Amino acid sequence: MGPMYDLFPANLPSGIVHLKSILAKDTQDALARATKQVSKTAEFSHARTKSGGIYSAEMTNCGEFGWWSDSQGYRYTHIDPRSGQPWPKVPKSFTETLTMVLAGTDHSDFRPDACLINHYPDTAKMGLHQDKDEADFSQPIVTLSLGAAADFLIGGFKRSDKSIKLLVESGDALIMGGKSRMRFHGIRKIYPGTSPLPGLDGRLSLNFRKAT
Ligand SMILES: O=C(O)CCC(=O)C(=O)O
Question: Which of 96, 161, 184, 199 is most buried, judging by how many CB atoms fall within 10 Å of its CB?
Answer without folding.
Answer: 184
